[in-house]
Write a structure and sequence with these properties.
Two copies of one chain form a homodimer. Chain A is mostly helical. Chain A contains eight helices and two strands. The model of chain A has no long low-confidence stretch (mean pLDDT 93). Chains A and B meet through strand 1, helix 7, strand 2 and helix 8 of A and strand 1, helix 7, strand 2 and helix 8 of B. Chain A binds a DNA duplex through loops.
Chain lengths: 194, 194
DNA sequence: ACACAATCTTGACACCGTTAAGATTGTAAC
DNA sequence: GTTACAATCTTAACGGTGTCAAGATTGTGT
């Protein structure tokens, strides 16, 4: 691992982390393979030993961000003793929005492209489902079942929940949005107001 | 207006329409000044006589799309005899989502950047507010007032309504979304389910 | 007829993603 | 230890991009 000539040692991960740094510093639109390579001190074509294309690197960075996102969501409900309390869903929703308010650059990056599978239906294949929505599904189904909700209504309700928090995150992370209240304390009121 | 040498005649509008065509045909990411110029039969630098930058052209195209969008929203409620019927808000919401389902390319384009002002609060300056949200505001306030809703709750409710339909549009226009039902007939159920 | 401003072209620059060809290095087999 | 091989990285080049400077063309008003 000497003074790194040629072999970097851990270039793949370094490229991902440099990409994260670039997105945070200059925004999603400023992410480029050449800048990321330069940040890692390698030539412009070096990334192609680890990624097939820029989109491939973006996918890897996206996965990296989603892992962080999932940690936040899971931490937000791990203290709930009663896993059947509807408050659990509010907690998750609140943290969904706050994650992107705290990292506004991540929102257009995570949702810019087409790269993730989403299964909105309650039946069907969930194996490759977008992890945050899959988490909502698995947590919401038992809670709503206990409330006596039909399967049809349940599907609508779960989509509605995701749409609300996702839309709120989208709106709150827009650049020229003026809101004279504190998101952290208001999100809950807004979500409830359905 | 002969056989257009040099002076095109209506290049500014032609560039905007060519941009629209390009977005519909190849997607937002494929929009480029040079392609748009080529579509209009002018040189690569010609657009700079009418737009300061690519972003400036994008803003003009965005305005053009938003005008179409506003026509759809206004048409969706012009037949409502009772302007105080809450159904009016559902109608608008449904058409908000359907506009982007019918034109999926427009969603990432209209909401990609930072160029529009948004005032979420009920007070404050609405003169340059994002027109679709401003329309929702002006229509929702009298309806919710008649229902006896407080101003504080009203603000939350209006934000919540926008978030829900906006999130629904965002989700429905994602590329790899699987939904085994018809959006047109289900949107209303999903919105109601709050 | 002239002057001027608006409009458009040509040519260049830096940056970008991507590829081909080849150089360097770690590793496993002998 | 030497040798072969695969992985990794570099250099050089291609076409595409936004942008700017210089100058050519044209409509318009004096």
């Amino acid at each position: 691992m000497q003074n790194r000539q040629y072999h970097h040692g851990d270039l793949r991960n370094s490229l991902i982390e440099a990409g994260i740094e670039l997105i945070n510093r200059e925004g999603t639109s400023q992410l480029s393979l050449r800048k990321v390579a330069a940040l890692c001190g390698v030539s412009q074509a070096a990334p192609y030993s680890h990624f097939q294309s820029k989109e491939d690197l973006q996918d890897a960075i996206r996965d990296y961000v989603i892992v962080q996102f999932m940690e936040v969501l899971e931490n937000s409900i791990k203290d709930c003793t009663d896993q059947n309390n509807p408050r659990l869903l509010i907690q998750m929703g609140k943290n969904y929005v706050m994650f992107f308010i705290k990292n506004p650059q991540y929102f257009p990056f995570v949702f810019s492209q087409q790269c993730m599978e989403v299964n909105l239906s309650l039946d069907g294949d969930d194996t490759r489902n977008f992890p945050p929505f899959q988490l909502l599904k698995t947590k919401a189904v038992p809670i709503l079942s206990k409330l006596g909700m039909s399967k049809e209504k349940m599907e609508d309700a779960i989509i509605s929940m995701w749409a609300t928090v996702h839309g709120l995150a989208s709106i709150a992370t827009m650049k020229n949005v003026h809101y004279n209240k504190d998101w952290e304390t208001k999100i809950e009121d807004i979500i409830w107001n359905k």
